[in-house]
Amino acid sequence: MKTFKCYDCESSFQAETREMILSILYEHYMKNHHSVISNASDEEKKQWMQQFEKDWQTAEEV
Ligand SMILES: [Zn+2]
To answer: What global pTM score does this model have?
Structure first.
């Protein structure tokens, strides 16, 4: 289990796998940061994913 903090607010989430945290984050962004998703360009989405992969790898085990 790892802890991952939202990039756009103080919320943090815990998940077992990369797939799990992605679906949690997706739901959270759809609900709380919808404009972040809808305003992001493809390039920004790509950068978000790259940052996410890096941060998930180094996320703290709990
Ligand atoms: Zn958030």
So the answer is: 0.89
d(CA 62, CA 49): 23
Place of tokens 């998940």: 15
Q: How many angstroms does the Cα of residue 56 sit away from the middle of ligand 1? A: 16
Ligand 1 centroid, distance to 26 Cα (angstroms): 10
Tens-level pLDDT at each residue, the chain (62 residues): 999 999 999 999 999 999 999 999 999 999 999 999 999 999 999 999 999 999 999 999 99
Ligand 1: centre distance to CA 23 (Å): 13
Structural domain containing residue 25:
2-58
Our count of domains for the chain comes to 1
